[in-house]
Amino acid sequence: MHQRPSSADLATEANGLSTGLGILTFTFFPFALPALVFVVAPLALVAVVGLVLAIPFALPIWLVRAVRRRQSRKAGSGMLPGGSTASTMKPSDAAVS
Fold first, then answer.
1. Quick one: CA dihedral 17, 18, 22, 23, positive or negative?
2. What DSSP line would sit under 41-90, residue for residue?
3. Where are the domains of the chain?
4. Segment 44-70, tens digit of pLDDT
5. Does the CA dihedral 67-68-69-73 come out positive or negative?
6. Which residues of the chain, if any, have pLDDT below 70?
7. Any idea what DSSP says for residue 80?
8. Disulfide-capable partner of 9 in 2, 5, 31, 60 (CB 3.0 to 4.6 Å)?
9. Average pLDDT, the chain
10. What residue spans of 3-31 are helical by DSSP H?
């Protein structure tokens, strides 16, 4: 059977791991900026081109939806949650709503 490691053993192991990770971080740090330039920049370029190509298609759809939403709000101002107006409700429907 294995014994549980002591606090000192855990601290020694954690110290060694953090030292190793620190050495790796400093070693690979000079590659971080070129990696960002070569990976993120092309992805950003693709995103911008995609947005420019999508705007002519998406803008009319957004405008139509906004106009329909505005018209439905104006027409639906006297509507109740069930879809009927207050003037057409029967007394028996009032208890259901």
1. negative
2. HHHHHHHHHHHHHHHHHHHHHHHHHHHHHHHHHHHTTTB-TTS-BGGG--
3. 37-64
4. 999 999 999 999 999 999 999 999 999
5. positive
6. 1, 76-97
7. -
8. 5
9. 83
10. 7-28
